[in-house]
Design brief:
alpha/beta; 6-stranded parallel beta sheet; 3-stranded mixed beta sheet; 314 residues
């Protein structure tokens, strides 16, 4: 393999789905000479070591960041400040500190006054993932042809921003640079509110006395199944997202509720023209997402069904 090392030492704090996928992508691209892994869970750390996801494994994040040129926080955003306080004494001058949280303004507020002035703090958010978690759930291709947003702080050196951008591009991502507040507003409507809706719909279906759990599972071949996939995402991570991006989520949720009320009136008044117009417009948005390379147009979203799986195993 050609020499492509970008950083002498990289430290990943948190080895769940995103952290383990980054680790695999780093190893796939030979992007560092030494990859240090840290996780508060001894079980996760042991599993990561068995999977050979790095070169060094530490339960204490301070040990992992020693001499690291790049540190990436891959834990729930609610843990960032505590972790930042722990690792601050061990961060070397010129190191880049980043993260993968789907909220950015809170991340800046949590870490900006904790991290030493001699490091470059560049928050990030790879817009990719699955509903699974844990070290074994990651895969190197998770970021291929997916966007990663960077929201550099004002004092971050441009050279460091360029290096981090090159890093994410090396593991397959298309990189966008934007303001942290703008990021949070965009993600509130494209990710956070949809997750909130999914959690609510699945919870409502489970609560309805007229629909048994067995029937929910039996008839989940329709749209409900897609909601259950989203609602299966990590509860702690999403709890922190809604608590830390509260203002943007509430703003977008207010807009959504206004539009939902309009849709309710259209159904009540048998306004077929309004319904057809909305459905046509939203179908075109789906096509735009596929054309942008952010989804597949394969039948049933490219899912492998039982018969296909049986054929594969035969």
């Amino acid at each position: 393999m050609a020499e492509t090392i970008q950083f002498d030492r990289i430290a990943i704090i948190g080895i769940g789905l995103i952290g383990s996928s980054i680790a695999r992508a780093i190893l796939r691209g030979n992007l560092t000479a030494e990859l240090a892994i840290s996780d508060a869970s001894p079980q996760h750390l042991s599993e990561a070591e068995k999977l050979e996801l790095g070169h060094a494994f530490h339960q204490n994040p301070l040990d992992a960041v020693k001499d690291a040129d790049l540190v990436i926080l891959c834990t729930p955003v609610g843990t960032y400040r505590e972790i930042g306080e722990k690792i601050a004494p061990g961060l070397k001058a010129g190191a880049i500190v980043s993260d993968v949280g789907s909220v950015k303004e809170h991340v800046v507020n949590s870490l900006q006054d904790v991290l030493p002035a001699h490091v470059d703090f560049i928050p990030g958010h790879p817009i990719s993932g699955t509903e699974k978690s844990g070290p074994a759930s990651g895969f190197a291709e998770l970021f291929d042809h997916r966007f990663c947003v960077l929201t550099p702080t004002d004092n971050a050196a441009q050279l460091s921003v360029d290096r981090l951008k090159a890093f994410w591009e090396a593991i397959g991502s298309d990189v966008e640079i934007m303001d942290a507040k703008h990021h949070d507003l965009v993600l509130a409507i494209t990710s956070h509110v949809p997750h909130l809706i999914a959690y609510n719909i699945v919870g409502t279906a489970d609560d309805l006395e007229s629909v048994t759990k067995s029937e929910v599972i039996k008839f989940s071949a329709g749209g409900f199944r897609d909601f259950t996939r989203i609602a299966a995402s990590d509860p702690i991570m999403w709890r922190d997202v809604f608590l830390t991006n509260r203002e943007a989520v509430l703003e977008m949720l207010g807009r959504f509720l206004e539009d939902l009320s309009m849709l309710q009136r259209a159904v009540r008044d048998s306004d077929g023209e309004m319904l057809e117009g909305l459905f046509t417009r939203t179908r075109n948005i789906r096509r735009s997402i596929i054309d942008a390379g952010q989804e597949t147009d394969e039948a049933d979203f490219g899912r492998h069904h039982r018969a296909e799986a049986d054929e594969d195993q035969a």
